[in-house]
Amino acid sequence: MARKKIALIGAGNIGGTLAHLAAQKELGDIVLFDVVEGVPQGKALDLSQCGPVEGFDAKITGTNDYKDIAGADVIIVTAGVARKPGMSRDDLLGINLKVMKAVGEGIAANAPDAFVICITNPLDAMVWALREFSGLPHNKVVGMAGVLDSARFSTFLAWEFGVSIRDVNTFVLGGHGDTMVPVVEYSTVNGIPVPDLVKMGLSTQERIDAIVQRTRSGGGEIVGLLKTGSAFYAPAASGIAMAEAYLNDQKRILPCAAYVSGEYGVEDLYVGVPVLIGANGVEKVIEIELDADAKAGLQVSVDAVKELLEACKGIDGSL
Ligand code: TXD
Asked: Which residues form the Lactate/malate dehydrogenase N-terminal domain (predicted)?
């Protein structure tokens, strides 16, 4: 059976890390695409030379021509500009919307059957715009945010309780921004809900609230430290987990920015919800029971995403 094909649109910090992770996991052959000449080609050559050392077989190529993504099974989009200190994710809207238009048209013309994972910020708006511009089915276009936000939440909880990250499972809903909703009640350590661990005296509500807030500002914390860009290792690992769920039909339940049409009382919008990802892409939106606080938090997130979409429509009349 021929190897799968993974196209990475954007060969920057996340794109290069995606390529390395996909190669190490032998998910398939990899095409790095970028508008900057030399960068995708240079990174592809460098990564190919990891093969003999790390023992992976993967054909890794770089290109500036969309024709080379033809037939891709999975496309992961990081094209655009990243944040610098003092910039919000929403500040990237105008620039990255134009990029999504070019990327959407490139995908529509060359790889319309791919499963597309959008990473570019502001994520909740960019994944919606990418779906509009590409015209792909809603279940084949999804945004990566919740897997990263949940990973941040899990890391901080594992440190708090002094347990293995393997035993921590968390739920983060809503948008990829200050309005995200880490759902403490559904977050567990080896099946024990976090509120029960607080009752058992293993932490306090104040400390858990501080962890929720640190998760919300997890991206900004790293931008402030790096100063030259934003996080890219965990975002890449998160995008690869979603790609693997599709390529290997894993039927994973993952928090993603997915299209909802009625679920959670939301119509015709991309928002962070738990979904089941398998060989047919987003196969199901999982509707969990939310308490009043989580419901209110999700509504704030939905309203914020709707505002971003209105801004997109104001910029590009074709949306
Ligand atoms: O959780 C999440 N979704 C976020 C997403 C987590 C971290 C970073 N987030 C966003 O991903 C970030 O705000 C950016 O919008 C993207 C990519 O972040 P990255 O750190 O990879 O940015 P880089 O290193 O600047 O790489 C972007 C590449 C760069 O090589 C540009 O030349 C290229 O995108 N680029 C393009 N490629 C193709 N087509 C066009 N038009 C284009 N414009 C720029």
From this structure: 5-143
For residues 135 and 64, what is the distance between their CA atoms, to the nearest angstrom?
A: 22
| Choice from 119, 152, 172 to test ligand 1 binding pocket (greatest atom count within 8 A of CB) | 119
CA of 120 to the centre of ligand 1 (A): 6
**10-residue stretch averages of pLDDT, the chain, 319 residues long:** 95 98 98 98 98 97 98 98 79 91 98 98 95 98 97 98 97 83 93 97 97 95 94 98 98 97 94 97 95 89 91 91
| The domain defined by 5-144 carries CATH number 3.40.50.720 | yes
CA distances from 95 to 82, 197, 286 (A): 10, 44, 33
How would you classify residue 70: left for phi > 0, otherwise alpha for psi between -120 and 50, otherwise beta? beta
Cα(10) to centroid(ligand 1), Å? 6
Distance in angstroms (rounded) separating the CA atoms of residues 220 and 237 = 18
Q: Give the position, in ligand 1's atom list, of the atom nearest the Cα of 118.
A: 3
How confident is the model at residue 103, as a pLDDT? 98
Domain ranges of the chain: 5-144, 146-310
ipTM of this predicted structure: 0.99
Please give the pLDDT value at position 88. Answer: 78
One-letter identity of residue 8: L
